[in-house]
Amino acid sequence: MRGALGTGAALVCSGAPLLPVGTAPAEPQVPQQDWAALRKEVQGRVLLPGEADYAAAKRLFDTRFDAALPAAVVQAATTDDVQAALAFAAANGLATTARGGGHSYTGASAADGTVVVDLRKLDDIRYDPAPGPDAPTGHVTVGAGATTFAVQDRLTPFAQTVPLGTCPTVGVAGSALGGGIGVESRAYGLTCDRLSAATLVRTDGRLVDISATHEPDLFWALRGGGGGQVGIVTSLTFRTCPATAKDIVRLTFPSGSAARVLTGWAEWLRTADRSAWAKAEFAVRDGDVTTDVLLVCPAGTGAANITAITASASATPVSVDSHTLGQRDAALLLAGGTTDPGHTAFVAGSDVLIDLTPEIADAIVEILTARARSGATGGLLVDPLNGAVGDIPFDYTVFPWRDHIALLQWFVSEPADPAEAARWIAAAHERLGAHSVGGYVNYLEPTDSPRRYFKDNLDRLRRIRAGTDPGNRLHSSPALW
After folding, report:
1. Which of 340, 355, 428, 460 is the most buried (most CB within 10 A)?
2. What is the top-level taxon of the source organism (predicted)?
3. How many Å apart are CA 281 and CA 105, to the nearest integer?
4. Which pLDDT band holds residue 120 (cuts at 50, 70, 90)?
5. Would you state the torsion angle of the CA atoms of residues 220, 226, 227, 228, taken in this order, to the nearest 10 degrees?
6. CATH of 35-118, one of 3.40.50.980, 3.30.70.120, 3.40.190.10, 3.30.43.10
7. Strands (E), 207-318
């Protein structure tokens, strides 16, 4: 699945929305006349199992969840529809889950027995250039159904952006609720760090406006706590940041250079200007491990950054693919050259590193090399966590990884045996041992404890969740209990 930019652009779509771990409450039997009443109440559609469009409506990005059987899919056309769906679910003892981009790594947004509130039609994007506190270039308000590429496209005429991932169909809401990592994160922080306000429907159907000064506990929970913890978000407002033309460069290094490149990449990060971002990518195929670095930096600075990266890595790339592009074209290239990557199956998991020493790099490469020798496939994406991400205290948002250097995302695309792929990723965690301090909630693995993703922020998140959803009717990602 190498797109125009290679391994990571169209494969696992980093920054994807959130995931469930728990089991939804047992599904009650709802009389048909009650479903009929809900249909009359909403402007959108209510689709039940066996109906013509139900299978397409519940389908997610990951084809492993095609057999999921939610109780219903409510395709909300308005915020009122979301309120009606949650009130209906509460009255009938049904669990609910939100569906935005549909990239949940464990199928949260089509969970069995739930009422899926499909937010894709709530995709309005409005830019307000008026400056505000900590927002000299204005704000953008996006509906919960807006996708990454749609937001970049809408902001292009204003030369504005928000730190976002690169997969074009990932929902901005889901990504932000778990943190949100992208090519602007070293300069401007996480997606959730730019959040200034949101609207949310609570489990009883009430609509709530949320900000740092109104419902501050809920505002805290929305910034990195994962999807569906305190309600269903219908819109989010972000502080924008300036968008500039970019040099986008792929450096492909020779076989056998993975450890040097990984260590050199980490060394470069420590002194690189925050306007420059790069991730290391490794693919296991044909019995070998390929090594690439994807660099994104302001136009005109690519050559200097290439020189610095290759010097730190003590390695010469075998090929250099370079482009200088404006905002929209850069977003399209980083998306793999398409705004619709279609559907695929994958298994993935993550590790967070405080440091990336030669010892740790060797351990990572040993994991990949052993995979290659076994004849299997897989890969690893290594994103930076330094720069502006580290400017915020660990407890200011739920996202706890503020004094760390790298996020590792292990993946197997189109696995012949998903269980075997999951075992390989679990073995990678074990091999890293204490070098890994946790994982990223947007890359949730279904058997993990939530403390692995939230650390000391978990206790406060649990208290907030218990106060907002005492009946545990939100199918959250992850479950906190």
Report:
1. 428
2. Bacteria
3. 20
4. very high
5. -60
6. 3.30.43.10
7. 207-211, 232-239, 241-242, 246-253, 277-285, 288-298
d(CA 345, CA 210): 36
Task: Find the DSSP H helices in 44-112.
Answer: 54-58, 79-91
Q: How far is CA 91 from CA 26, 38, 233, 274, 455, in A?
A: 14, 12, 20, 50, 35
Residue type, 292: D
Q: Is the pLDDT of residue 14 over 50?
A: no
Contact 7, 283 (CB under 8 A): yes
The predicted-structure confidence for 128-151, as pLDDT tens digits, reads as follows 999 988 899 999 999 999 999 999
Instruction: Fill in the amino acid letter for 155.
Output: L
3-state secondary structure of 316: coil
Residue type, 470: P
Residues 6+ apart with CB under 8 A from 163: 180, 181, 182, 183, 184, 185, 187, 188, 189, 190, 191, 193, 194, 241
Residue 435 is predicted with a pLDDT of: 97
- Answer yes or no: same fold for 35-118 and 125-242+456-472: no
**pLDDT, the chain, mean:** 93
Task: Work out whether strand 45-47 and strand 241-242 pair parallel, antiparallel, or are unpaired.
Answer: unpaired
Q: Do 291 and 252 contact (CB within 8 A), yes or no?
A: yes
Residue-by-residue DSSP string for 107-122: -GGG-TT-EEEE-TT-
Residue 172: predicted pLDDT: 98
C-alpha–C-alpha distance, residues 343 and 216, integer Å:
37
pLDDT tens column, 412-454? 999 999 999 999 999 999 999 999 999 999 999 998 899 999 9
User: Topology of 246-452 in CATH?
Assistant: Vanillyl-alcohol Oxidase; Chain A, domain 3 (3.40.462)
Cβ atoms of 352 and 436 within 8 Å: the answer is: yes
The domain locations on the chain are: 35-118, 125-242+456-472, 246-452
**Interatomic CA distance for residues 238 and 254, integer angstroms:** 41
Tell me which residue has tokens 């075992």: 423
d(C-alpha 84, C-alpha 288), whole Å? 53
Distance CA(23)–CA(293), nearest Å, equals 39
Structure-token pair, residue 175: 């990504």
The pLDDT confidence band at residue 12, using thresholds 50, 70 and 90, is: very low
355/148 Cα distance (integer angstroms): 30
Q: Using the 8-state DSSP alphabet, how is residue 259 labeled? A: H
β-sheet with 96-99: strand ranges across: 45-47, 72-75, 115-118, 96-99
Amino acid at 429: H
Is pLDDT at 252 greater than 50 in this prediction? yes
